Amino acid sequence: MRFDSGRVCLDLVATFAPHEGIPDGDELRLWLAGAGLVPDRTPLARVGADWAASFRALRADVETLVRAELSGSEPDEGALARVNALAAGPPPGLCAVRDQEGHLVRELCGGVECGALLAAVARDAVELLTDPGDRALLRACAGDGCTRVYLDTSRGHRRRWCSSELCGNRERVARHRRRLLASGSR
């Protein structure tokens, strides 16, 4: 799993391609921890297939809205209404507690609820889609076959790939091969 899109809602959108990243509760647990939505050591015993299905539905709605923004088209009203409804829910509460060594660490107060975690991601999507500065930084990866969307926070805002190490490197290697073939070298 990668968490380099620039926003948690875009990282959720990225879990779909090239394969389903959250097919079940176990993978969702990993994504929630990796995205920083739940602090380390947070027990996530109740995360199941119903949670995964809810996050996949939110992912589809966020992707629909982000793609509409990128293409300059009107947002899908149904997707917008569902994201707004989720964003209106209460986010998870954070508490500072002492760990075994006596240091303060973050914990979720009152347990982990699916609706609260969905609200956090939906709220991130609402913030992204309503912030003119962030909307202006939305980009679709130019990598061949890549469907990721990211925020271009590079200096000069000319970034072309979701990841220079992955998609950018693939593109540079392909360009090099094309030049070699065109020159007749191997």
Automatic annotation (TrEMBL):
- Superkingdom of this entry's organism? Bacteria
Zinc finger CGNR domain span: 138-179
Q: Which Pfam families match?
A: ABATE, zf-CGNR
**What PANTHER family does the record point to?**
BLL6575 PROTEIN (PTHR35525)
Q: What is this protein called?
A: Zinc finger CGNR domain-containing protein
Upper lineage: Bacteria, Bacillati, Actinomycetota, Actinomycetes, Kitasatosporales
